[in-house]
Prior knowledge:
It comes from Hyaloscypha variabilis (strain UAMH 11265 / GT02V1 / F). Keywords: Hydrolase, Signal. InterPro entries: GH (IPR017853). This is Glycoside hydrolase family 39 protein. Residues 1-15 form the signal peptide. It is a single chain. The protein has a 9-stranded mixed β-sheet with strand order 17-16-19-14-13-12-1-15-18. Strands 2-3-4-5-6-7-8-9 form an 8-stranded parallel barrel, surrounded by 4 helices. It has 10 helices and 19 strands. With 459 residues, it is an alpha/beta fold. It is globular and about 75 Å long. The two termini are 33 Å apart. The chain folds into 2 domains: 2-37 and 352-457, Golgi alpha-mannosidase II (Immunoglobulin-like, Sandwich); 43-344, Glycosidases (TIM Barrel, Alpha-Beta Barrel), CATH 3.20.20.80. The site of one 2-acetamido-2-deoxy-beta-D-glucopyranose (NAG) has 7 residues, from loops.
Amino acid sequence: MRALLSLLCAAFVAASPLEPRDTITSTVNLGNNTGSPEHLASGFIYGLPDTQNQIPDHFYTDIGFNYARAGGAQVPAPGRGWIWGLAEYKVRFASALSNYRTARKYNADFIFLIHDLWGADGTQNSTAPYPGDNGDWTSWDDYLTQWISDVNANKITDGLSVDIWNEPDLTYFWNAPQAQYIQMWGRTYHRLRQELSTVKLIGPAFAGQPDPTNDWWTTFLSFIASNSSVPDQYVWHMESGGGDMEGAYGALVGMLQTYKLPIKPLNIDEYATWPEQVPAGSAWWISQLERVNAHGLRGNWLSGWQLHDFMASLVSKAYANGPDYSPTGGCYYPNGDYQVYQYYNLNMTGYRVGTSPSGDLKLDTFATVGKDMVRVLTGVRITTGTWQITINDLSAVGLPTSGSLNIHTWGFPFTNHWGEVDVPNDLGWVSHTYSGNSVTFPVFQTDTSTAYAFEFDVV
Ligand SMILES: *[C@@H]1O[C@H](CO)[C@@H](O)[C@H](O)[C@H]1NC(C)=O
Ligand SMILES: *[C@@H]1O[C@H](CO)[C@@H](O)[C@H](O)[C@H]1NC(C)=O
Ligand SMILES: *[C@@H]1O[C@H](CO)[C@@H](O)[C@H](O)[C@H]1NC(C)=O
Ligand SMILES: *[C@@H]1O[C@H](CO)[C@@H](O)[C@H](O)[C@H]1NC(C)=O
């Protein structure tokens, strides 16, 4: 009778891949190969010192750094950008150019933030001008002429993207009417497409995630459909502490159907709040971004010259956060969050497999099958409690459908954003008995910041 029941259950599970997710269980499906890992989440905004080679190469290469985004934000006078005159534009451009060269040294793509070079970096005063004020586009047209000429003169079109404007849905970055933003998009898109045809034009980089009740999204999508100005990547930010990637992407796909727009690659070119920039939060975001194949760049919550340092809070250095801080100082070391990205890049090799988050969206997993081991990186969205991980289809990696499995655990601790962590903690091996081609084990999350990796040998 027992045997019959479990057979029935197994048949039921196999026939119902869409059964509701268990609230506390994140699931890994070893039979669902989702392609080569490209560590899609290994980008960050700013965080590159304006002095090239200041942070040693291995800090970039060990995390597989692959996406940068800058435009001279917060460079002080005399470098406040175009709205303060050509001389201040030139100083700001030099900062972005240096960051571009740093990114390209590691073959990372570079997103140029032309709103920052203009001067609307959030520190602009309440009377600062915006493109097209009072219907006059002269200054913006002249600005683009200057910028296109500098891009060509410095030969920086390789690996270059342009975010046409950052977070125009926040008055902090766009304190002008929405309709003026839309006109700016249409004018700028067509001009850059014509004059810099190989450069990717991306956007809209809204702070708000896709949502059919969000008037910025609906107005934008409806306009680009009629204006033939569809971005090469759809971009938005996930820095509010809410939402999740499947929900946000699902909303985008629904709206693309409404406006008869094509699917394009995704780029979440600012993700995670400051409190989420801890190992657990980073592992959660990595899992979320990988699931929908979105490029991701860590948000950057530092200001002034610290914004141009520290790889968006992945590294720190002597006197990093005190009165003796020097933007050009050296002696870098990794923090706890860095260890997660290093493991993600160096150790999670082979091929990716499909995973699902726990039904409450608090625990998520990213998993790879390497030649030697299965590796499952997991993190909670900065909360405590007990969750569990189920790994299905163990026979897909050559294991028997029942028996005992030795699982190795690493803990990725957090000290604080400035604290040194050089290695993850080896938490040893635990044996789990299993049956039905599936193993389930608990994750005891007693703090809000530690991420874990679980590993076992493949046959
Ligand atoms: C405000 O910023 C603009 C440049 O954006 C500058 O021309 C103007 O002088 C500034 N006004 C004040 C009061 O600082
Ligand atoms: C797109 O919109 C801009 C701004 O209104 C306009 O200048 C341009 O002619 C439009 N292009 C097309 C193809 O509709
Ligand atoms: C990750 O891979 C590197 C390079 O092979 C190795 O030195 C390191 O020990 C590995 N780390 C873990 C946690 O397995
Ligand atoms: C495989 O995993 C991907 C990513 O999680 C998911 O979208 C897809 O539906 C999964 N396929 C199957 C057959 O479960």
